[in-house]
């Protein structure tokens, strides 16, 4: 008879695993914030170029990261089954696929100037963005390997190191980026190329630290992750590919939804686009809480699925949803009560456009209350489904919800119903609502009912 853990025990385990992941996601965001601030001080064209180049890098990274993210549920399930050989096979082939993807996509970075010019970007911006991407693009392989190792260590429930390595990367990035961009402390002034070198250096440093930790960690030594690393395992590679490609495409569909919304907001006006950018920055920080919980849920769900412990899997899922909902309610209160002060942190109140940005940004943060709850629901549902290695149908659910429902609804409400920017955010809410509802339904309808169990205390 299965021992059913108490709700408190599930909550403690989830938070112990998830909170360091939340911190690492926020620290990862801080890397980009530091680059934006430094380039913002340096020049408008250079800032626009790095923002554009960084967006291109991120979109390609999201697609390739699916293979790295597939490592997490596969290793978690293997541990649940007690299959130590499968732990090594899944993690190693996740790293292999990450490297192959990183090498294959580099020509896009090398020829990025021509691509960006064809997409209608200004020649000066395209040239600087290409200078950035030709160097930063070399970091795609280490960045994806870092993601694979983070997934591996998270599945082993060693998330503290992921947090501290990412925090260290933020400080190292600033120490390298600032002097290379501005030519301080004896370094040459190389502008956007300095930011790219800093990004590449940080990715390599992070990879070295995580490889060293994964090899040194006594708990992980028995898996022999790097022993005969060069030997391919075609069967395991096929399993990682089939699980990881839909994960990457799901992330691409969601990222595309937000990119399309930003593009259409630009059609409405500069003030609206500025307010949209501020509101998205605020909600992105809040979203990291739910992303960390989703990752932790994938690990916990994978462990229970591997052991076929459906009672604890379902109870753990309920607790994950409950914690995420509580966090969401707190965030809603903050957005509704402190909307104007929050928006005011991001602008110069003495500027002529400040009153308009404050007013519209405050309205968007009110919509963010609904938006955040829907976004939390869909990312948590994805975490639950990935834990049971269900990724293909969720990919189609995401694509339909975002591109056949969310984007058209936002466009119609904004430009046909004349709701403007509010209509676009309404489209986001609608698309995310359909995704969250359908994904949650799929998970709970597919997980077997719990067998008779005895409850144990925390």
What would you note in describing this structure?
This is Multidrug-efflux transporter. It is a multi-pass membrane protein. The protein has 458 residues and is mainly alpha-helical. It folds into two domains: 215 residues, Tetracycline Repressor, domain 2; 202 residues, no CATH class. 83% of the residues lie in helices and 2% in strands. It has 16 helices and two strands. A two-stranded parallel sheet has the order 1-2. Helix 7 runs antiparallel to helix 8. The protein is globular and about 65 Å long. It starts with a strand and ends with a strand. The C terminus is likely disordered.
Count of discrete domains: 2
Low-confidence stretches are 451-458
Structural class: mainly alpha
- Biggest sheet, strands in spatial order? 1-2
Assign the CATH topology of the largest domain. Tetracycline Repressor, domain 2
- Level-2 CATH architecture of the largest domain: Orthogonal Bundle
So how many helices? Answer: 16
Helicity range: over 70%
CATH class of the largest domain: Mainly Alpha
Beta-strand share of residues: under 5%
For the record, give the distance between the C-alpha atoms at the N and C termini, rounded to a whole number: 18 Å
Biggest sheet record? 2 strands, parallel
Average pLDDT number: 85
**Element-level helix/strand string:** EHHHHHHHHHHHHHHHHE
Tell me how many strands there are.
2
Q: What value does the Rg take, in angstroms? A: 22 Å
C-alpha geometry: globular
């Amino acid at each position: 008879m299965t021992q059913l853990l108490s709700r408190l025990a599930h909550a403690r385990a989830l938070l112990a695993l998830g909170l360091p992941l939340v911190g690492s996601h926020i620290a990862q965001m801080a890397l980009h914030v530091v680059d934006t601030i430094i380039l913002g001080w340096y020049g408008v064209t250079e800032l626009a170029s790095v923002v554009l180049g960084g967006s291109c890098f991120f979109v390609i990274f999201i697609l390739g990261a699916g293979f790295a993210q597939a490592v997490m549920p596969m290793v978690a399930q293997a541990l649940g089954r007690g299959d130590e050989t499968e732990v090594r096979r899944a993690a190693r082939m996740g790293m292999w696929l990450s490297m192959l993807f990183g090498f294959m996509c580099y020509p896009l970075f090398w020829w990025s100037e021509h691509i960006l010019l064809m997409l209608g970007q200004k020649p000066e911006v395209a040239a600087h963005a290409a200078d950035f991407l030709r160097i930063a693009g070399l970091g795609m392989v280490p960045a994806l390997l870092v993601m694979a190792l983070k997934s591996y260590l998270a599945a082993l429930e060693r998330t503290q190191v992921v947090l501290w390595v990412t925090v260290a990367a933020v400080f190292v990035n600033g120490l390298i980026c600032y002097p290379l961009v501005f030519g301080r402390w004896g370094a040459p002034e190389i502008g956007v190329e300095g930011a790219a070198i800093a990004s590449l250096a940080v990715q390599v440093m992070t990879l070295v630290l995580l490889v060293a930790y994964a090899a040194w960690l006594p708990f992980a030594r028995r898996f022999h992750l790097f022993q005969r690393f060069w030997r391919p395992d075609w069967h395991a590679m096929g399993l990682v590919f089939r699980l990881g490609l839909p994960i990457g495409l799901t992330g691409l569909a969601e990222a595309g939804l937000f990119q399309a919304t930003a593009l259409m907001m630009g059609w409405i006006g500069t003030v609206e686009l500025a307010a949209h950018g501020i509101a998205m920055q605020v909600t992105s920080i809040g979203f990291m809480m739910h992303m960390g919980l989703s990752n932790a849920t994938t690990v916990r769900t994978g462990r229970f699925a591997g052991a076929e412990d459906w009672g604890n899997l379902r109870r753990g899922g309920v607790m994950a949803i409950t914690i995420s909902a509580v966090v969401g309610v707190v965030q809603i209160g903050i957005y509704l009560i402190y909307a104007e002060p929050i928006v005011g942190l991001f602008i110069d109140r003495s500027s002529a456009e400040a009153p308009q940005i404050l007013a519209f940004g405050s309205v968007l943060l009110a919509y963010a209350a609904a938006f955040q709850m829907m976004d939390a629901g869909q990312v948590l549902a994805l975490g639950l489904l990935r834990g049971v290695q269900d990724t293909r149908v969720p990919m189609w659910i995401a694509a339909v919800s975002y591109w056949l429902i969310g984007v058209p609804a936002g466009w119609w409400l904004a430009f046909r119903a004349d709701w403007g920017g509010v209509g676009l955010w309404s489209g986001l809410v609608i698309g995310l609502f359909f995704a969250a509802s359908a994904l949650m339904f799929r998970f709970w309808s597919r997980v077997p009912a719990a067998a008779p169990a005895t409850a144990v205390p925390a």
